[in-house]
């Protein structure tokens, strides 16, 4: 399936403008050697947006070709941060005319990565061909070309083509760890394929290296859980392929008594609190999960067993153990933070597990087989900070409810915003029980102080002054943490107090999920991030919705987001191997574009919209034709993920 297309909009982000500025005058001395340690450290820490900003700063003070080097580094960091729009804007302005072919190749590789994410696989192939045509490329660049070619083949549903490119890539990489990582990547592609397809590809393979890999995958799949048969088959394989490169890494994993075989999964357990205070939410997740299972046409799809863990989170570990004892080879759930923490505290993760929550616990301290996936509001708040920063804003005001949820949102947003280098000029809470929010809004906009000064002057002079209140001028935008009900009341009052032209950003909570041009007219201008499932109403997304939901009672409500969580929880299972071995890989689901971080947490990249005439309008995706916006919904039978390295 094609991934989601993110099509260009006519916007130039400020950091891209900075990078494009030439500050060296003719005849001026060359810029001193710059130090990229800060940017490189940020990248190592996974702070890719910070790294991009630093690389662009370095580009601004550097001369060619170091300038272009930092611009290319910034583009790569933006891509790693999931900021496709900004990466495209940045790479398009990099001038590599007259530079060494290596710069041309690096630019084309980055453009190809962007094309893949936009669904332009054929375009990506042409860009990679142009990269390959450059002379005297170093091994690292050639290895990257093969790596991105593998991504193209996967996007074109040609996994064997991807494996061929990864086999070719091995000749350009050095070091035991790098070779092992490359082999693990191609291995996980192979063992995720159905046995019948492996058999067909084995019969068609002519290259002995490729044939050996496919045969080895067949052995692993056919003999999963049967150690004696597996050992005998592996010994025979080694005799037939004595010089095959797999003998150095994969075989030791297969023979090891540790659980590392990526076998086909026949039973999946779904753990949900169906009889609890969260029963409606749990049922929505269940309905989405089971709808995807029912829609799958695979003949060997796993059997799904649903376990009701009830309302006592402390008992969640008991249900987890019961599911494993019943034969579950993969556990999805539980839903709920306390239940997840109870299982994590016990620390006995026996099979690959996708928890439907994101906790503060590091999954690596529990198990390499643990994955986490949730709709954390804090993650959305952080993405709002990133979006506003990339839109060029630096001076922010924050308006949030005086509730535990509001405090969490404010803290998550503020911490991330300041980490990016933004400034919080003002922060103000409001009481959700009020119907008039003029007091907190006036305090936020400094109007209260203006009125107080007016009263003081009148008192001292004894004269009545003509006075028109004026909002503060030192804020670029406002982050509003609010649901639809309160947002509809707050936004008009912001406009009334002279902040109509101040951009307002929010999270998905500002939108009910049901388009209502009358009720949401007061939200006009608000920019917010949400999932494609809630914002896209045509093309493949609408086809999938019609196929899955039909008469589902809670469509286009807040519960629809939990339904989408269930859909993606099923659909992402066969993709976890790919996501865990390639940090540039993305899965385009109904909740968002998903990536897997180094700790096994699925990270969402939201879709952005702006209210206009009471309706949410996509602002990054221009649907040139119906069906352009597509998702991956191939519910293939999942393979058991190998442990994360």
How would you explain this protein's 3D organization?
Helix 2 runs antiparallel to helix 3 (48-60). The protein contains 26 helices and 15 strands. Among the domains are: 195-255, no CATH class; 267-375, Rossmann fold, CATH 3.40.50; 392-502, 3-Layer(aba) Sandwich (Rossmann fold), CATH 3.40.50.2300. With 645 residues, it is an alpha/beta fold. Strand 1, helix 15 (279-295) and strand 2 form a beta-alpha-beta unit.
Order the strands across the largest sheet as they lie in space.
7-6-8-9-10-14-15
CATH topology of the domain at 392-502: the name is Rossmann fold
CATH superfamily membership of the domain at 392-502:
Response regulator
Cα radius of gyration in angstroms: 27 Å
What is the top-level CATH class of the domain at 392-502? Alpha Beta
Beta-strand percent range: 5-15%
The low-confidence runs, each spanning 5 or more residues with pLDDT under 50, are 1-32, 257-262, 622-639
Give a count of the beta strands, DSSP E runs of length 2 or more.
15
CATH structural architecture of the domain at 392-502:
3-Layer(aba) Sandwich
Report helical residue fraction.
40-55%
Question: Which characteristics define this entry?
Answer:
645 residues; 26 helices; 7-stranded mixed sheet; Rossmann fold; alpha/beta; 15 strands; disordered N terminus; 5-stranded parallel sheet
């Amino acid at each position: 399936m094609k991934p989601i297309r993110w099509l260009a909009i006519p916007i130039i982000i400020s950091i891209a403008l900075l990078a494009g500025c030439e500050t060296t005058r003719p005849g001026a001395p060359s810029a001193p050697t710059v130090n990229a340690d800060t940017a490189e450290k940020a990248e190592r820490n996974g702070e890719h947006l910070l790294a991009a900003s630093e690389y662009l700063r370095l580009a601004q003070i550097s001369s060619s070709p170091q300038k272009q080097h930092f611009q290319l580094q910034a583009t790569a960091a933006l891509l790693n941060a999931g900021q496709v729009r900004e990466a495209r804007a940045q790479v398009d302005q990099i001038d590599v005319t007259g530079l060494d072919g290596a710069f041309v190749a690096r630019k084309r590789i980055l453009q190809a990565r962007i094309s893949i994410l936009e669904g332009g696989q054929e375009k990506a192939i042409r860009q990679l061909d142009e990269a390959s045509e450059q002379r005297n490329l170093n091994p690292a660049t050639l290895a990257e070309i093969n790596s991105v070619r593998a991504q193209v083949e996967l996007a074109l549903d040609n996994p064997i083509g991807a494996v061929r490119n990864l086999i070719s890539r091995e000749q350009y990489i050095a070091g035991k760890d790098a070779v092992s990582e490359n082999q693990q990547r191609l291995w996980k592609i192979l063992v995720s394929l159905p046995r019948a397809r492996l058999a067909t590809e084995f019969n068609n393979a002519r290259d002995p290296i490729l044939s050996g890999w496919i045969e080895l995958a067949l052995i692993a799949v056919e003999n999963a859980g049967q150690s004696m048969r597996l050992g005998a088959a592996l010994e025979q394989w080694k005799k037939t392929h004595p010089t095959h490169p797999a003998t150095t890494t994969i075989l030791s994993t297969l023979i090891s008594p540790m659980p590392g075989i990526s076998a086909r999964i026949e039973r999946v357990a779904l753990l949900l609190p169906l009889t609890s205070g969260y029963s409606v939410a749990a049922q929505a997740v269940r309905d989405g999960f089971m709808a995807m299972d029912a829609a799958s046409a695979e003949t060997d799809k796993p059997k799904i067993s649903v376990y009701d863990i009830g309302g006592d989170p402390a008992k969640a570990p008991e249900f987890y153990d019961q599911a494993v004892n019943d034969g579950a080879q993969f556990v999805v759930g539980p839903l709920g933070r306390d239940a997840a923490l109870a299982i994590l505290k016990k620390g006995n993760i026996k099979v690959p597990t996708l928890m439907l929550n994101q906790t503060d616990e590091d999954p690596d301290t529990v198990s390499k087989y643990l994955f986490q996936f949730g709709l954390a509001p804090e993650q959305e708040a952080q993405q709002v900070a990133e979006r506003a920063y990339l839109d060029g804003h630096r001076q922010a005001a924050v308006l949030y409810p005086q509730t535990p949820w509001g405090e969490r949102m404010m803290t998550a947003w503020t911490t991330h915003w300041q980490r990016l280098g933004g400034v919080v000029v003002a922060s103000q809470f409001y009481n959700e029980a009020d119907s008039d929010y003029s007091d907190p809004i006036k305090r936020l906009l400094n109007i209260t102080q203006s009125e107080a000064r007016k009263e003081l002057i009148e008192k001292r002079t004894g004269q009545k002054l003509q006075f028109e209140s004026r909002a503060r001028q030192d804020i670029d935008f406002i982050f509003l943490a609010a649901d639809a009900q309160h947002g509809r009341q707050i936004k008009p009052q912001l406009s009334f107090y002279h902040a109509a032209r101040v951009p307002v950003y929010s999270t998905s909570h500002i939108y009910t999920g049901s388009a209502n041009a009358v009720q949401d007219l007061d939200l006009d201008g608000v920019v917010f991030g949400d999932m494609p499932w809630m914002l896209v109403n045509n093309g493949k997304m609408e086809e999938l919705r019609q196929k899955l939901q039909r008469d589902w009672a809670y469509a286009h409500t807040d519960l629809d987001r939990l339904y989408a969580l269930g859909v993606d929880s099923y659909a992402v299972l066969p993709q976890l191997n790919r996501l865990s071995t390639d940090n540039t890989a993305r899965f385009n689901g109904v909740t968002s574009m998903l990536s897997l971080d180094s700790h096994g947490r699925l990270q969402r990249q939201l879709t952005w919209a702006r209210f206009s005439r009471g309706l949410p309008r996509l602002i990054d995706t221009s649907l040139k034709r119906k069906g352009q916006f597509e998702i991956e919904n191939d519910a293939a039978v999942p393979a058991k993920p190998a442990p994360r390295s």
